[in-house]
Automatic annotation (TrEMBL):
SUPFAM superfamilies: lambda repressor-like DNA-binding domains (SSF47413). PROSITE patterns: HTH_CROC1 (PS50943). InterPro entries: Cro/C1-type_HTH, Lambda_DNA-bd_dom_sf. It holds the Pfam family HTH_31. The lineage of its organism: Bacteria, Bacillati, Bacillota, Bacilli, Bacillales. Residues 7-40 form the HTH cro/C1-type domain. GO terms for molecular function: DNA binding. It comes from Paenibacillus cellulosilyticus. This is Helix-turn-helix protein.
Length: 165
């Protein structure tokens, strides 16, 4: 599903007019209408506001902009259980699988490069699984606990600069 379709679906599912969503994302209704109809690409400023509106837009935009390197797992697994407890269990499983794959990768010259390449491929897949589930878990936690994503981003960046992360 394209970003245009995602915006339209999101807006209609919440009973929002284009005018009301445009106000919420601080853009003109005409810009939003053109994005929804596919007449124009979504401007970066609107993308940022859509992400602030709902975390699902972040997944969609990241998927489109990175050519799937960061993928929107919700599109591939629409039946995914988004209950926080279910996501916690899935995250624990994915982290365990990643740890196992990481332990299996031996970075030594005497190891067969083809064998290590296969282990590296498995590690890549496990790391991708963790990234995809973590992105969804983060968004669900924001919704479930009514967390302020822009504020959390600022806090996280500050903690990183202060070497606390």
């Amino acid at each position: 599903m394209s970003l245009a379709m995602t915006v339209t679906q999101y807006r209609k599912a919440r009973g929002l007019s284009q005018e009301l969503l445009a106000i919420r994302v601080k853009h003109h209704r005409s810009t939003l209408a053109k994005v929804e109809s596919g007449e124009r690409p979504c401007p970066p400023g609107l993308e940022a506001e859509l992400v602030r509106e709902n975390w699902r837009f972040a997944l969609k935009i990241a998927d489109e902009r990175t050519g799937g390197w960061i993928s929107n797992m919700l599109e591939h697994c629409p039946e995914m259980d988004l209950h926080p407890a279910a996501l916690k269990e899935l995250m624990m499983k994915e982290l365990h699988d990643l740890k196992t794959a990481l332990e299996g990768l031996v970075l030594a010259k005497h190891i067969d490069p083809d064998q290590n390449r296969e282990r590296a491929r498995e590690l890549w897949h496990e790391a991708t699984d963790v990234i995809e589930v973590a992105a969804i878990l983060r968004g669900v936690m924001e919704e479930h606990f009514n967390l302020d994503m822009p504020q959390l981003v600022k806090e996280h960046e500050m903690q990183r600069r202060e070497m606390k992360r």
